[in-house]
Design a protein that fits this description.
Helix content is 37%, strand content 18%. It is an alpha/beta fold.
Length: 176
């Protein structure tokens, strides 16, 4: 049975009316392709301005891999955008799984710290960053479930851009 705090939907995360949507960004936080491009396009130019104003941790880097930063969401129906930077999948020997887990964990923590009751995640790192989709979904689901066991008032949406990804999540969540 699917957990009643978790929902899986197939669609476009920019349309989600939740407190926070998560962006699969890169370390510059200045936009890019994929879901990052879609979020910046829909939010409007003020989002980029707020991202540019975030402090640089090193030249050109506003968020380290596995970490997360929160901004307003401007023209999006959500209240906040939580920008996280997933790992680029290499050979699995560079801490990729741990870094991906950190993305989910830090995004969830930031949501709760900002009084969010609902948060929507895309399938972080499974596009341009080539993380294997099934392994990525396992990490997403296990991290979220563990977090929700201590946060019974939070709702989590997994927003899948294609049917194949959605079916991976449905399968994982109906497995227990
Ligand atoms: N709504 C929900 N999911 C989406 C959407 C959308 N509108 N658009 C794409 N996806 P990717 P990454 C899915 O490549 O692998 C960017 O250039 C997509 O099908 O967006 O973490 C950043 O700036 C895939 O399942 O992110 C970084 O440089 C998932 O979102 C880099 O790509 C993630 O694909 C990050 O790569």
């Amino acid at each position: 049975m699917e957990n009643n705090q978790i929902e899986v939907v197939e669609g476009d995360i920019t349309l989600c009316k939740v407190d926070a949507i998560v962006n699969a960004a890169n370390r510059t936080l200045l936009g890019g392709g994929g879901v990052d491009g879609a979020i910046h396009r829909s939010a409007g130019p003020e989002l980029l301005k707020e991202c540019e104003a975030l402090p640089e941790l090193e030249p050109g880097v506003r968020c380290q891999t596995g970490d997360a930063k929160l901004t307003r969401a401007y023209q999006l129906p959500a209240k906040y955008v939580i920008h996280t930077v997933g790992p680029v999948s290499r050979d699995g020997l560079h801490g990729e799984a741990e870094k991906l887990r950190d993305c989910y964990q830090h995004s969830l923590e930031l949501a709760v710290q900002n009084n969010c009751r609902s948060i929507a995640f895309p399938a972080i790192s499974t596009g341009v960053y080539h993380f294997p989709p099934k392994k990525a979904a396992e990490i997403a689901v296990s991290t979220v479930k563990e977090f929700l066991s201590n946060h019974p008032d939070l709702e989590v949406l997994f927003v899948c851009f294609d049917r194949r990804t959605a079916s991976i999540y449905h399968h994982l969540l109906s497995d227990e």
